[in-house]
Structure formats: structure tokens, C-alpha cells
Amino acid sequence: MHPVLVIALGATLLTVAGIAFGGTFLLRVTGGRVPANELQKAFFRAGHAHAGVLVTLGLLVAVLTDAVGASPGWAAAGALAVLGSAILIPAGFFLSVLGPDPRRPGAMIASVWLGAAALVAGVTISGVVVLGAGIGALA
Q1: Which domains, ranges and CATH numbers included, belong to the chain?
Q2: Structure-derived torsion over alpha carbons of residues 115, 58, 14, 44, reported in degrees to the nearest 10
Q3: What are the transmembrane regions (predicted)?
């Protein structure tokens, strides 16, 4: 596994504590202890859910591409793109609805779309390198 990817995976594992703290924040929001309008509640839920799922997917992609013996550079590129989406998408959901009572998402919603592009790129790269490793193993 590429050393840069190993460092990123270690940092990613540490972010799980932040995601867990985000869960406690979400409980305070839904319990009414943190004021939030309906748009904010929906976006906070979406941000928290995407963070957990995408971090898990990024870790899985890194381990999978390593397990099949994929090219370390391409494997790292795919996994890092997925892990990047785990930052961009939740950030877009959380940061686009900051303020006392937003009626629509702000400009930071663009981060969700950038993250979606990174996610598609990452799983496409990873899928191709895993397929390539499998086909190469047949020969």
C-alpha cells in the first residue's frame, strides 16, 4: 500500500471520533436543544449520514484494492478520491445551511457536487484497477 494512503487511512480512522461527536450534535438538534429549522435539520442529517458511509467506503476501497494487488498508485488515487468525497459532501451539507434561519442552501452546496464528482471518479478508478487485477490474475 502506498505510504501516502496509509497516512490518509490513519487520519481517516481518527475522524470517526469526530463523526461520533457529530452524532451527539445531531441528537441535540433533533431533541430541540440546538435551534435549527427544518432545512438545517435535514441537511445536518444528510451530512452526518454521508460522512459515516463515505468514510467506511473509502476504508473499504483502500483495503480491497490492496488485497487484490492493484497498482499502488492507482489504488491510492481511487481510495483518496473516495475519502476526499467523505470530506466534501458532508462539508457542503453542513456549511451551506449555516446561519440563524436559512431558507435555502448557500454557495457551499457546490461542495456536495464536487464531492459527488470525486466519489464517481474514485469508485470508477478503483473498479477499473480491481477488474484489471482480476483479469491479470487469469493470465
Answers
A1: 3-138 (1.20.120)
A2: 40
A3: 6-27, 48-68, 74-98, 110-138
